[in-house]
Every structure is written in structure tokens, then in C-alpha cells.
């Protein structure tokens, strides 16, 4: 229930914060049409819609999607409040609770809630500690070299496709390093088919109709079952052998809670699927956008090559080089600022609450958009320009924390952020040492907001030898 009268303490708090009390009023926002609310407008051009909502109404915008109330938050203070100060009052947004996601990742880390999520996060965290993930650096560099060995100077390649293939191979290998069977490669191919619906803006429709036995859905369930069979078989074999293979699966299998309990096979399967899904496309996208941006900015590309020559001098990169590959890291950070793979985050208010003086009823869908906040000129000088060198330590220290949140924040922040940063730097360095990737002449790349922020078509480059 919405409160109509502010309590004394609420008033005192709002006044102390030096803000106007909005209690019992709604933030401004677009009305939309009587039945649909803003649904049609949003579906027609979602990025344009979320940009206009801020420029027309400000940092807190209220609207309705069909019967569902929604709040868009654009200012770092309010984003911090939802993700980090009061995260207990927010669960993941409605869209993540569809049976489509349920079938794919079950109750894995991305989708689970409450005590169940807390336990899984506790059990999974050691596998992602910095000292542990160092073991995967070799896999990352080897697989990148293997990919490059198939490239010929002068030929055209779609970098988005290449990066998707590479990051999928890497995450599959980091999970199952010891399993050399053909099945593991097969997991990659099946996954590629399985996540195809993610590529489409019609996803929502698809998700809603998921219960109908259409050929597409039957195929989806068949593919999901095929992966399940392989994953469960590997889990059973690992449990039987009892060996620590040094990969992510071994870590998850060995994890024990304080009371000695471990993950069940079902939980392991859900976490494995979650890591496949959360861990490859996001990283591939940052890499694809990085190549695109470097292709567009020869000065930055030159500086990138100089750093690689100076730090590596032709030898393969290792984890020990990461602290020196500063500009390479800045490229990845700036690419994630301009083209954040997760371009928006969604939550649902569990109980009535108040955000910046406005009452927010339980059930409200709250969205925050990296796509808009990370290009806000209040926080970034010349915000639409690609300037990796802006990421100095001083700049990072003065930037409001939630003006940059490509990995989310608070307790539900990305568990794979260090893994992803390491992977992106090593892949960029390994390829950049050998090749220049020149954007194909006249090729324009547009953004396409599907489940993540993709290039609309291909990122077509011509592969050139550097020396
Ligand atoms: C550039 C690469 C990546 C980006 C931009 C990214 C982004 C994100 C974001 C924004 C969230 C928070 C979602 C929310 O709050 O609703 C998240 C969560 C998560 N990410 Fe990543 N991610 C990346 C790479 C990875 C990798 C490599 C892995 C694993 C190998 C991974 C595994 C996860 C998991 C398991 C969660 C859920 C964590 C939880 O709720 O406890 N991500 N990621």
C-alpha cells in the first residue's frame, strides 16, 4: 500500500538531505496509451526511448508497461541506493523469472534469490578469487593463438563471430579443462544454437509463448536436454574420480558450506549453465566493440601497439604482464563505457519503499541504464568520444561510483569481473601483437539492443600483419 502521509522522521530525513519532499507524488514520466502504457514506444526504439525519458523528464522517471509500474533511475546516487545501499528490498526484474530462463539456468547465481542465492554465492566465490583464476590465463592465450592460426593476412573476418567463438571455447575449457572428449566441444556448438533467441528483439514474445509446443520451442527443449545430458555425465564422472583437475568445475564440486554441505548435481548443473551463458557473450561483445573502436581510432591503435611492443616484445603475454598492460586495460574499460554489454539492469521492489523522496510501491520494476549514465556529460568530458586515456587513477577516484557500472554493483555484482578483465586484456594483447584489424571500407556498425548490446550485423575487418 502506498503511504499518503509522510511520517515526521521521513520528513526530517528528506529535509536533512536538502531535497524537496515528493512524498505521495509520482515522479514525472510519459503517459503512453491507456492499455499498453509505454510498451509500444519502448519496443519500437528502446535505446532512443530510454535516452528521451531522461532528457524529457530528468533523473527519475515513472511509467507503465501494460499494467506494470516502472521506474527508470539515471543518477548514480539512486542507482547506488538500489544496488548497494538497500539491495535487500529489490529482487531481479520480472523478465528474468520467465520459464525460458528457468529452463536454461534454473536456480543458478544469476537468477536465484534470498538464502539460496547467498549460499550459492558463498560456495562459488572461491573459484573466482584472483589467485585462483590466474590458472586460466594460459587457456586464454592458447585458445587465442589457436584462433589466429586460422587467419590469413588480407582476408576479411567478422570479428564479432570470431570473438563469440573464442570466448565460448575459453569458458567451456575453464570449466571442463580435463575433459578432452568430443562431447565438450559439442557443448559449445549446442549452446550456440540454444541461445539464438537471445539475438532477437522478438525475445520477449518468444519468452511469453515458451509454453506452446511450436517447432522452435520443441527444438529449444531438445537442445537444452542434450547439454544437460553431457553436463550431468561429466559431473557424475568427476564425483566418481574425486580428482581436483584445477578447473572451475573442480572448484565448484569441492566447495563446502560451514555445515559441510555441498552443491547437489542439480545446483552444479545450474551454475555451469549460468557460467556458460553469463561468461561468454558479454566478454565477446566488449572485445568486438574494442576492435571496432580501435579500427576507428588510429591514434589509440598506435598507442596500443606501442604498449604491446614495449611490454611484451614479441613473446606471449602472461598473467604477470597484466599490471603493465595499462593502456590495453583502459581500452577495454572505455569500450565497456561506450558499449556496455549489459546496457541496463532491472530490479523489482519487494516492499513499498522510497527513492529520493518518492514513494515506490512493491512490485514496481526499477531499471538503471549503463547506456545512458555512462555517457552522461555531468560525469564524462566529451562523453561520446572514445578516449581510453581518460581512465587515470585520479579520474577513477573522483568519478561517482555508480556513474560507471558495467559489472553491476553491490552484493549481486558480476562474480566473473576479474576473470573477464583478465580475459579481455590477454585476448586484445595476443591478437594486437600480431595483427592489425582494419575495418572493412564503408562498413558501418550499428548497435542492436537485444538481451545484450550487440553490433547489428557484422564487425567486418581485414586482417593485416603488423610487421
Ligand atoms: C565483459 C564481461 C562481463 C560483463 C559486462 C558482465 C556483466 C554483469 C552484470 C552487469 C551483472 C549483474 C547483473 C545484475 O545485477 O542484475 C553480472 C552478473 C554475473 N556475471 Fe557477469 N559480466 C561479464 C563477464 C562474466 C564472466 C566472464 C562470468 C563468469 C565466468 C560472469 C558471471 C556472472 C554471474 C554468475 C553473475 C551473477 C552474480 C550474482 O548474482 O551473484 N560474468 N555480470
What can you see in these coordinates?
- With 467 residues, this protein is an alpha+beta fold.
- It is built from 19 helices and 12 strands.
- The protein has helices at residues 8-16, 39-44, 46-57, 76-85, 99-105, 114-124, 130-133, 137-148, 159-175, 182-194, 203-208, 215-241, 248-254, 265-296, 298-312, 326-338, 370-373, 393-398, 417-434; strands at 60-65, 68-73, 90-92, 156-158, 345-349, 353-355, 358-360, 365-368, 435-439, 447-449, 453-455, 460-465.
- The chain has a 5-stranded mixed β-sheet. Strands 4-12-9 form a 3-stranded antiparallel β-sheet.
- Strand 6 and strand 7 (358-360) form a beta hairpin.
- Helix 9 (159-175) runs antiparallel to helix 14 and helix 15 runs antiparallel to helix 16 (326-338).
- The longest helix has 32 residues, at 265-296.
- It is globular, with a radius of gyration of 23 Å.
- The relative contact order is 0.16.
- The model is unreliable at 1-21 (pLDDT under 50).
- The chain binds protoporphyrin IX containing FE.
- Protoporphyrin IX containing FE binds next to helix 14 and helix 19.
Q: Short description, anyone?
A:
The chain is α+β, with helices and mostly antiparallel strands and 467 residues long. Helix content is 49%, strand content 11%.
Helices and strands in order, then pairings?
Elements: H1 8-16, H2 39-44, H3 46-57, E1 60-65, E2 68-73, H4 76-85, E3 90-92, H5 99-105, H6 114-124, H7 130-133, H8 137-148, E4 156-158, H9 159-175, H10 182-194, H11 203-208, H12 215-241, H13 248-254, H14 265-296, H15 298-312, H16 326-338, E5 345-349, E6 353-355, E7 358-360, E8 365-368, H17 370-373, H18 393-398, H19 417-434, E9 435-439, E10 447-449, E11 453-455, E12 460-465
Parallel strand pairs: 2-8
Antiparallel strand pairs: 1-2, 3-5, 4-12, 5-8, 6-7, 9-12, 10-11
Helix pairs in contact: 8-9, 8-19, 9-10, 9-14, 10-12, 12-14, 14-16, 14-19, 15-16
Bound molecules: protoporphyrin IX containing FE (HEM).
The site of protoporphyrin IX containing FE (HEM) has 24 residues, from α14 and α19.
